[in-house]
Design a protein that fits this description.
The complex is a heterodimer of chains A (218) and B (714). With 218 residues, chain A is an alpha/beta fold. Chain A has helices at 26-42, 53-70, 86-99, 139-147, 168-176; strands at residues 46-50, 78-80, 102-104, 115-121, 124-126, 131-135, 148-156, 160-161, 180-185, 190-191, 199-200, 207-213. Chain A has one domain (10-17, 31-213): 3-Layer(aba) Sandwich (Rossmann fold), CATH 3.40.50. The chains are: A alpha/beta (218), B alpha/beta (714). At the A-B interface, helix 4, helix 5, strand 9 and strand 10 of A face helix 2, helix 8, helix 10, helix 11 and helix 12 of B. Bound molecules: iron/sulfur cluster (SF4) (2 copies).
């Protein structure tokens, strides 16, 4: 491909290619990120890259606010972020408080009818298919990826892998546990059950946003 | 439910499907879109290699299914799951109902499971007082309509958006318009409440990994994740064949399944569930989880040398997607529960010979299913084996026995052909026979004109036209097959001319007869074997190649003879014959080396139909193209070049309505290239295509490759 396929909407965000630290695997990393982005977008996911967690969390609040408005809801928009680290959650909470978003991290079961945005990390990304791998054994995390209108997943670039063979070791580790619920997520939920016409958003999220995070703090 | 037990109702059902304009169009669009989509998604992945790997590990699993089951049970139970083994469908249903009662369940939600369809689980649960709601959109739709799925992956493919809108209007008691996006949202809303209220979720599984006690689900809608997460109880009903040894094996299934099913690189969700997971609404905050493995004849299948490979099936539905019959009649007329080629076979095993006996005859033997099977299952052959077994149990019909008897006696058969006695006296009971038996005997199939028996068969002409070749570069024997010998001798004569020009010595062994494929298709295995024996003896002399202008004959000599004659004293000879057998075009191109230098002629437009047994049976695809081009034609490939013409020997007689519809599509496709000449390489196809073109008054000449090449020889 001749042109770099990233469609960055924020002028402050430089193309991802500049951010890769030089190293032995540089070409591979760039390729993997490029292929991942391309494939995830083919599967109708939105993919952006962010430099810092702060940017990711701002993005989440923007998204939630936009979605809440779109629905014209009277109550403040709702966001769940059950599995974020305490520090990230605190940061997000600050943002949400300012913006009038109702953020919670527990008891998603009382919101089974739906929430606007679910924010999670993703453990791994599979470039070949543009898939996220999320170990969601925690029930609240699992529900956040299922019942949110929009699922926003933050994927550290260090979690990117070329194909399914490169995740076998991790996956094997998950499955060896005493209990585990892991999902590969590729794009939003979809169906073609009526006249084979592709329709997005049946029982799961209507949108999937993936933020490729350069920092590897999480 | 569809009545497939009596042929008359079954034919009526087929007729209704053929008359269903929406269904026909939907199926047509799907067939074309699927073919293109699948091709794209396998552009970067070697399909044959992957299918081969699936076949290999599945085969290694099926010989130790019980051991895998024990391993799975041990590992899963150590992680808090209860694992059950149900011998029969009834037993599985009872176990699940019992789990429901023990957990005081009232409302059940289900994600898609073909295995649950197989056991008729819903009706059992409903009879036991449970309320059951399907949550896969397609399944929900057909549940509300009290129908069966018409496709394994897209269960409601037979319905239009208008029908769904009408249905949803009834369900919600609110007028719903027919916009698909909106209809999907209606389902989302209606079903979300069902998820919340449910006490138990039932799912299937796409694989079960013995090593870790993990079950996997490959889905798009996200309903299976809710089914397995929201209610306090989760039961998975899983066919024993879903057991795989390792995680690596499961990943292979994940690689091939969505690609082969719908041309998707991967589904939206691939879910791996291990052990009893956290569940706030369950006692002890751990999911109550049960996995019920279903035998229902699978262990018997595993021990059956013919049918063990059926257990490789990953239920991708591809064998239906490419089937020309499925395309015409849809799923409700092409399978009992399981649909497509695999459905014809599984119906026999799961539901018995009565339900299967007419279904298995609705196969043209075109091989399209086999060529796309994710697990390399020899589906067309197994369909024939099922047919034979049913006949062995219930008695072979008189006409099949007669056919077998006649074919076995070559001189009697040829005598009958000569005097065309069948034409006046249908000893066949009106059932037309195979690709190799001239259709002139069966006057009632008036959708295409039938050729007459030639005044003199090729075998009578042979001594007169036999060329003298000095210093031949190689020696070949011609295997004519009965149609060419008795109906189209001119095609063979043209071939002889071409070959002689290349200094190739040709023999025509007089003791050859029908190749035996018709007998095999009719389930007359003894007769098929007998004629195979006769032919091996007849063609035994020291030839370099055995060439036939009939793709079906070559494919039968090559692939079936070694199998059919494996336990006879001519097993070696049969293998040798198989090795020498070659299609006419392959020989001319690859061995005789015919090129543009051999021909002259105007660049008139010509298109090509690839006989099933040539492209898929023998893998010969490029040679006919090259020869048509070499002869100077303006070659115009047809979009559906490899789609079956609908002949299929006996098929065209048993299901003339389907056959004629397939034929019509085929001719349209050929004509749309703008060519006035359709070339092919099989006398059966010519009989079908030429007869159809004549009957429909189309401006399309249908000719054998040998004829058009011979005319342009320099
Ligand atoms: S051989 Fe052809 S007609 Fe028969 S089931 Fe397979 S695809 Fe269908
Ligand atoms: S038989 Fe083969 S093609 Fe048909 S559903 Fe099974 S795996 Fe797929």
């Amino acid at each position: 491909m001749a042109t770099y396929p990233y469609g960055c909407q924020h002028s402050t965000i430089k193309p991802y290619i500049n951010l890769i630290t030089a190293g032995e695997n540089m070409t591979t990393d760039i390729d993997t990120a490029r292929i991942f982005t391309e494939k995830a977008r083919i599967a109708s996911a939105t993919v952006e890259r962010v430099r810092t967690m702060q940017q990711a969390l701002d993005y989440a609040a923007d998204l939630c606010w936009r979605n809440g408005k779109k629905e014209g809801l009277a109550p403040p928009p709702a966001m769940a972020a059950p599995a974020l680290s305490p520090a990230d959650f605190a940061q997000l909470k600050n943002i949400c408080d300012v913006r009038g978003i109702n953020l919670f991290r527990e008891n998603l079961r009382s919101n089974l009818q739906g929430i606007d945005v679910g924010v999670t990390y993703a453990d791994l990304g599979i470039a070949e298919t543009g898939s996220l791998v999320i170990n969601s054994t925690s029930e609240n995390l699992r529900l956040a990826t299922m019942i949110s209108d929009i699922h926003l997943a933050i994927l550290p670039v260090s979690g990117l892998r070329a194909d399914d063979r490169d995740i076998i070791a991790d996956l094997r580790g998950y499955l060896a546990g005493p209990e585990n619920y892991t999902t590969f997520i590729t794009g939003p939920s979809r169906t073609a059950d009526i006249e084979r016409v592709l329709a997005i958003g049946v029982h799961g999220p209507l949108e999937l946003h993936i933020l490729l995070l350069e920092e590897t703090q999480c | 439910m569809l009545n497939t037990q009596d042929m008359k109702s079954y034919q009526k059902n087929i007729k209704e499907s053929l008359d269903n304009v929406f269904l026909r169009k939907a199926m047509d669009n799907f067939a074309v879109a699927y073919r293109d989509g699948r091709k794209k998604t396998f552009a970067e992945i070697d399909f044959d290699e992957l299918a081969g790997e699936i076949a290999a590990f599945k085969d290694s699993a099926s010989v130790r299914l019980m051991a895998l089951y024990e391993e799975f049970k041990r590992n899963a139970e150590a992680k808090g799951i209860r694992v059950h083994l149900a011998g029969t469908a009834e037993e599985a249903n009872q176990i699940i109902a019992e789990i429901g009662r023990a957990n005081k369940v009232k409302r059940v939600i289900k994600s898609k499971s073909m295995t649950a369809e197989e056991t008729h689980l819903n009706s059992h649960l409903e009879k036991n007082g449970f309320e059951v709601t399907e949550t896969d959109l397609g399944e929900w739709i057909i549940q509300l309509r009290h129908e069966k799925p018409s496709h394994m992956v897209m269960p409601a493919i037979h319905l239009s958006r208008n029908q769904v809108a009408e249905l949803f209007t009834g369900v919600t008691r609110k007028q719903q318009d027919n916009e698909i996006e909106k209809l999907v949202k209606v389902a989302r809303k209606e079903l979300r409440t069902k998820f919340i209220e449910a006490d138990m979720g039932i799912s299937g599984a796409n694989f079960a990994i013995a090593q870790s006690g993990t079950m996997g689900l490959v889905t798009n809608e996200g309903n299976a994740r809710l089914v397995t997460t929201v209610p306090p109880v989760h039961v998975a009903l899983v066919g024993l064949e879903k057991l795989v040894p390792t995680l690596e094996d499961a990943l292979k299934i994940v690689r091939i399944l969505p690609r082969n099913a719908t041309g998707q690189a991967i589904t939206s969700y691939v879910t791996w569930i291990t052990g009893a997971n956290p569940c706030e609404s369950a006692p002890g905050k751990r999911k109550v989880m049960h996995i019920v493995f279903l035998d229902n004849g699978r262990m018997k299948m595993a021990a059956d040398p013919d049918f063990a490979q059926v257990l490789r099936c990953v239920r991708c539905g591809a064998c239906a997607n490419v089937c020309p019959v499925y395309r015409m009649v849809g799923g409700h007329a092409f399978g009992h529960i399981y649909i497509g080629a695999i459905g014809l076979i599984l119906t026999y095993f799961f539901h018995g010979g009565d339900d299967a006996k007419n279904l298995v005859q609705n196969c043209i033997n075109c091989g399209a299913c086999k060529s796309v099977c994710a697990a390399g299952i020899d589906l067309p052959r197994l369909i024939k084996v099922v047919f034979t077994r049913i006949q062995d149990n219930t008695g072979h019909p008189l006409q099949a026995i007669m056919l077998g008897k006649i074919l076995k006696n070559r001189s009697l058969f040829h005598k009958m052909l000569r005097i065309g006695r069948f034409a006046q006296r249908p000893v066949t009971g009106g059932t037309p026979y195979l690709r190799h038996l001239p259709m002139v005997f069966f006057p009632e199939h008036n959708f295409r004109q039938l050729p007459a028996i030639a005044a003199r068969p090729f075998r009578d002409l042979w001594q007169e036209i036999k060329p003298v070749v000095h210093n031949p570069v190689c020696r070949i024997a011609l295997f004519s097959g009965c149609v060419q010998d008795f109906v189209y001798p001119e095609q063979l004569a043209a071939a002889v001319k071409l070959l002689a020009g290349k200094s190739i010595a040709v023999e025509f062994p007089m003791d050859q007869g029908c190749c035996g494929l018709p007998a095999e298709m009719m389930g007359e295995t003894a007769a098929a074997r007998e004629v195979a024996l006769q032919n091996v003896k007849a063609m035994h002399a020291d030839f370099d190649y055995v060439i036939s202008l009939c793709a079906s004959c070559v494919s039968h000599l090559k692939h079936a003879y070694p199998r059919i004659l494996a336990d006879t004293n001519v097993a070696q000879e049969a293998k040798a014959l198989a090795a020498k057998a070659m299609s006419f075009s392959q020989f001319l191109h690859d061995v005789a080396g015919m090129t543009a230098d051999d021909f002259q002629g105007e660049p008139t437009p010509a298109t090509y139909h690839s006989p099933c047994h040539l492209c898929r049976g023998l893998g010969v695809r490029e040679q006919p193209h090259a020869l048509i081009r070499a002869a100077g034609f303006d070659f115009r490939p047809a979009a559906e070049e490899e789609t079956c013409c609908g002949f299929g020997g006996t098929y065209t007689g048993k299901f003339p309505t389907v056959s004629s519809q397939i034929l019509e599509k085929k001719l349209e496709d050929a004509v749309s290239t703008g060519a006035g000449l359709l070339v092919t390489e099989c006398p059966g196809c010519i009989m079908q295509l030429r007869g159809g073109a004549l009957m429909q008054g189309r401006d399309l000449a249908v000719r054998h490759l040998s004829e058009v090449l011979a005319e342009r020889l320099k």
